[in-house]
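Hi Q.,

Before the meeting this afternoon, I wanted you to have the tryptophan prediction in hand. No need to reply - just skim if you have a minute. The sequence and ligand are here:
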Amino acid sequence: MSESDFTPRDSFGSRFGIIAAAAGSAVGLGNIWRFPYVVGENGGGAFLLVYLIFIIAIGLPVMLSEFTIGRKAQRNAIGSFRKLSPGTPWYFVGMMGVAAAFLILSFYSAVAGWTLEYVFKSVTNAFAGTDETGLNLMFGTFIAGTWRPLFWQLIFMVLTAWIVAAGIKKGIEKYTKVLMPVLVLMIIILCIRSVTLPGAGEGLAFLFRPDFSALSADAFLSALGQAFFSLSLGMGTLITYGSYIGKKENLPGTVVQVSAADTIIALMAGIAIFPAVFAFGIDPGEGPGLVFITLPNIFLQMPGGYYFALIFFVLLAIAALTSSISVLEVVVAYFVEELRLTRKMATVFAAVMITVLGVFCTLSFGIMSDVSIFGMDFFNLMEFTASDLLLPLGGFFIVMFVGWYLGSASSRKEISNEGAYKLAYFPIFMFLVRFVAPVAIALVFIYGLGLLRL
Ligand code: TRP
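Predicted structure with the ligand bound:
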């Protein structure tokens, strides 16, 4: 038995705290920045339907698998595999997760930094008196700069590290319990404003009326990728958070609530954005610039736009922060438990290394835009390696581990709290983790590498 078996481990203090932290991880730039433009690019309602099916058939089983591994082992992402499968190479899955955490946070903090700049721009009323061209130029000039985007990225990383350094109960749980309700309130306000705009119906129809002719083979794969990223799956974030969940908590219930919260907030982001996009005659397939260029343009033309812009960008920054802490925690938990660093040291160490990588991501929009590695700039290299390679691989091995290595009896014991719950649907879960999820993930992975063209 190792020494850490005797040191009391930090954990979440309440049921609401677990939901706030896990939903805080899931709800992020993926929901509010990425989801609307991906839906826009893939034609709307039909894509949404596919996305929802993937969330239920693949997202839920993968999430429950991660929580099961973490809570059973009571360890970080790497330590969990070491403990549950000693002497086997399964811990490589955890190592991939920790590596992915470095890469994800390096580009995530770059975009998160932009959201802080846009909070600042909203406060100082910088959008007033410009138009679409001006806003395009404003965004382009800002991200191509050096010190300004780096400054905001650094501020964002300091905020992230500050919360993580304070621990689980006194850091992550304490802040997400306050920030998540604020986020929900803000998005409700934006939804109400948007659906009461004249012409809102067209935007809602785009989002909710499936037009299957707009659905390509590509869309299926984008939908699965989006589901993974949005639910924070595949890199051990939820293994790590699962290890802080008490043995009496209801894991399947938590999974359903967190996934529902993530999906509802993504839908609300869609409801807030598409009616406004249509009301102002903007192309919904605009791409990644949708929230930084299109939305300020919409706010400009809207009564009370100053306040709605401010609310929107604060919302985006909060969503990014409650996600980034969950990514940093994966690395910090590993450093603390396996390298025996103090939490403060581990946090500083991890945050500094990630920030250094992050500098290259930020600069790849500016002075380093000519630097290309494997044909990609640094930002795209990080995003591609993490999201398209490490996450699907991680997700694949996580469900295989639960489905085939832990197996039915052992998983059932953990998920049912040693038999306290009956779990009538358990065979369905086993079928999903053994067959449906691995096959679907493998298809996306192979497609993502360009080995298969549908
Ligand atoms: N889910 C978050 C979002 O939607 C991002 C995120 C946090 C994430 N932790 C993760 C993505 C782990 C993949 C893996 O923005």
